[in-house]
Every structure is written in C-alpha cells, then in structure tokens.
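Entry 14. Ran structure prediction on the chain below.
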Amino acid sequence: MKRKKYIYLLFFILYFLLFACTEKQPFRFTGKTMGTTYSIIIADTLVNPDLIKSTKLKVDDLLKQVNKQMSTWDPNSEISMFNKKTDNEPLPISSDFINVLKLADVIFRESGGAFDPTVGPLVDLWGFGKEGVRLTPPSDEEVENRRKFIGFDLIEIVDDTMIKKSHPETQLDLSAIAKGFGVDKVADLLKSTGHKDFMVEIGGEVVASGRKKSGKWRIGIDR
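Output, structure tokens:
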C-alpha cells in the first residue's frame, strides 16, 4: 500500500515538473534605435531560445530599416539627407517615409499647426535642442529669422515618391511620430510570426497585445 502511495506521489511530482517546464514563460529583449531604446516582452512562447533569437534578429533588421529612413541621429538616413539639402530639387524617399509624412500632414492641419515637424530649429534657438542651453532668451529678430523657414506647408510630397522643400533651411524631425510608427511595424511583425501576447515599447511609445501570464498588461504613465 505504501509502495503505491509512493508511486502516485512520484507520478504527481513528475507531472508537476513536466507541466512547469512546458508552461509559458515571458521573454524580454532590448536594444537601441532612433536615438533611444526599445524593449519587447513576448509572453506566449514556450521556452525556445532559438525562436527568440530569430525574432530579435527580425526586429533589429526592421528597426534598422526605420532608423535608416527617419532617424535624425543617423547622418546618412533619408531624413538627414533631406535636411542637408539646400536646394528645392525633389529627393526620392521610401514609401514608409511618405506614409509617415502624410500622417504628419493630417495632424499638422487638424491641430491648426500645433504639431509641426519643422519646428526643430526654433526649439534649438530657445535652448531646448542640440544647440545647447541658453542663459538668455533669443531676441525677437532671431525668432523671426527662424520663423521664415518653419512650417510644414514648406514641405511638398512629389508623385508619392519624393519630397522637396521650398526654403533651403527648412528641416524635418519626425521623432514625435516615427517611434510610434516603429512600434506599430514591430507589432505587425510579431503578429505575422504567430505571436499574440506581447508588449512593444520604443522611447515611451507602447503597443500591447493579448495578455501576460499574470493577467492584463499594465502600463505606467509618467506625469
């Protein structure tokens, strides 16, 4: 009788261990893109390091592509090449870049110009950008000089394949929506590879899908 109890106990322990080993475990991997960091948690995959490694490589390749299109941190990206131009000749760009520009145009117009991807030089002038902190505010003359080449309506999409500027000093910075675009692209990639439960975060932009092991995803918001 005791022997049977031990056999049942052993069977129960083996069953428990087998279940525990095959239970879904969340995976997290991180990296850098567009001058910031990204973090991805996949909660619907069985323990499979090879699959996770393959997924990370695909994500990195995708984000490198987005980076090459719209990152102002990459001096050779499409957007950086456009910003360096001092003529009004059209510059061929990728279809993804075109689509983000079209979205930016919609937001620019619906917000009455409150969202303006060309405002970077004015932000720099006030000491909040790459030119560094200012101890005194800029003069009215300095502000007016920069306002001459600020305005998203100075950007034109040509034949849905190219863009040009009507002022040689106009520059683009799509950071406000490019990271969100990257998050959506990564989410689409994960779904296309069969993942349903995941969270993607790039520089504070987040997409969550499905659930994690302990329940719903919880997102913190800094005020």
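The chain has two domains: 26-72+173-217, 96-170. Will compare against last week's run tomorrow.
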